[in-house]
Amino acid sequence: MANVSEQDHELLSAYVDGMLTEEERLALETRLHSDPDLLRELTALYLTLAMIKQLPTLTAPRNFTLPAAPARWLIFPATPVFSALSAAAATFLVALGFFLLLSTIGGAASPQPAQNQEVALMSNQVSSTAESSGENQVVQQALTSTANAIPGSVGGDTEAPVVNTTLVALPTQAFTFVPGTATVFTFAATQTFNNYASTSEPPPDNQRDVDGMGGGAPMTATLVDTFAIDAAASDESQAADASVAMAPLSTGTALPAMPFVPPTSEPVVGAQTSSDDSAAETGMTMRSDEPTAQPAPSENVEVLEAESTGIEAAQIPTASPMATSSPTAEATTTPAPTATPAPTVTATPVPQATGMSSGSIPAILGLILVLGGAVLFGIAFMTAVARRGERRHATKEGQ
Amino acid sequence: MADTTTTDEQALIRAAQRGDRNAFNLLVLRYQDGLYTLAYRIMGETQSAADAAQEAFITAFRRLSTYRGGSFRGWLIRIATNTCYDELRRRKRRPVVAMEDLVPPESDDDAPIPDPSDTPEQVMQQQELNRAIQDCINALGEDQRVVLILSDVEGLSYQEIADNTNAQVGTVKSRLSRARASVRNCLQTVEELLPGAYRLME
Questions:
Q1: CB-based contact A325:A248 (threshold 8 Å)
Q2: What is the pTM of this model?
Q3: Dihedral, CA atoms, A161, A166, A172, A178, nearest 10 degrees?
Q4: Burial of A259 (0-12, 13-18, 19+ CB in 10 A)
């Protein structure tokens, strides 16, 4: 074997492949002419390459064609990425859905009783309405004084019971105050007389007329007063004297038969005027009523046309005289109220606690999210199974 | 003819990229012998070469979207080379001996159909020479073997070999030189099998 260095072998190998530069090729060829060992090595290299190149192309032992694609029972791509994304999205949806469900269940506080809401709504209405109109303030004062005076006068020497008066000022917007005229407002005042705490002890006779029930149980009386407000009393300073500015209509005062167009809202529950009660002539009636029904602020009083007087909310000319009789005196002569059919009042349903209806939406949404997450989990699982099946199928074909 | 073949091949490739398995299988039939031969020369035995070739075609089908044009054969060779490298490294970690390797093959089943003009003796001699050469190639290290096969069997350039093996051109040149010198020295031990002209090398 010729003694040829490894560097010469590399030069010869590159020379055979034509990978030498022009200078290198010329230098090598010059050496080949003078170095027989180098030439012999080059010859051996050529022969080795010839034997390697003559190796035949083998015949594949079988066809390496791919099998037909398996029937896709899944419309989703059976890729690892899709499976991973599906699983991650499913986890997120399930977690979010459970969060919504648990927050809805935990935050579903007992809704306020409808009654309390009614009271709150009415209080707000009262306060807002009162604030908007000085007239109402004066009217309330008058009602309060009147209400407080009534039991005392009726009871005679009995001590004035504790009266809790909840005034519901009807929305003034239902009545248009026309300057130069007097507008009759009808207010409903619900009074709870706590004087009669024991049902076993009947009240004194002179007090039975007050409540008209003859019982001693605490009751709620609905005091309905119809006041005619003088246009001149619109001024707050003048309206301060409620007994003058606003007083119940005296007996015999006939209001002009003005058509009264009640507002579209339902009348106030409990706010009634007696149809055949002489007290209605004075515009003042005390009667027992469904005690707990508090009129909704949006309701207006539907004044029943009394049989005798036909008291109505009407536009009264300023010049109409108004009696200034004391309501207390009237009360004393108030006969026992007859059973007046309750007006067909349909109370406007007080809106329920908003938490109930709004709380169901997150719960439903949470349930939907949980179900959606379960579906995605199923899809991720099926794609993984399909991918394994395809791989197994391809392996079998390869074998 | 070559242009028509190339045009047809490009049409098949585009169809295969759209998911047409039949089109890809036509390409497989066209290149499977060459790819199997490459795998056999690198792996050194039949079963491993078949597995590597099958795996290479499956990989090629999955990565069809990465083919950006050029020599489709060269693209397949690169995939097959990497597949063989992976298998060789796996064998190095867990050496296994196939049952077929325990019994030397009595005949070269994979050899092509011999030339009908050759005598049986010539056919037998040729087969033995081929086996000896393959044995000398198998004796090389993995890096030298792959470089030698890609250069002298597949006809790739130094740069193409460097791209396939993730090596420098100078490294490829050096490995190739040593591989050729090793095979030359190995063949001298079986010179009785060599043609008369090869015996003059001494």
A1: yes
A2: 0.49
A3: 10
A4: exposed
Q: What is the mean pLDDT of chain B?
A: 86
Placement of tokens 């040149």 in the chain: B173
Which of A371, A369, A366, A372 has the alpha carbon at shortest distance from A100? A366
Search chain B and give the residue with CA nearest A9.
B177
Distance of CA A11 to the CA centre of its chain: 89
Q: Which of B178, B181, B197 sits opposite A47 (nearest CB)?
A: B197
Three-state DSSP class for residue A328: helix
- Residue-wise pLDDT for A306-355, tens only, equals 444 444 444 444 444 444 444 444 444 444 444 454 444 444 444 444 44
Whether A13 sits inside 8 A of B153 (CB atoms) is no
- Residue A337 · residue A286 · CB < 8 Å: yes
Instruction: Please report, for residues A92, A242, A249, the alpha-carbon distance to residue A141 in angstroms, rounded to integers and kept in the order given.
Output: 62, 8, 17
Which stretch of DSSP H or E encloses residue B202? none
B124: helix, strand or coil: helix
Check CB contact under 8 Å for A64 and B32.
Answer: yes
Nearest CA-CA partner of A187 in A152, A218, A148, A147: A147
Query: How far apart (Å, rounded) are the C-alpha atoms in residues B180 and A128?
Result: 105
Higher-scoring residue by pLDDT: A120, A61: A61
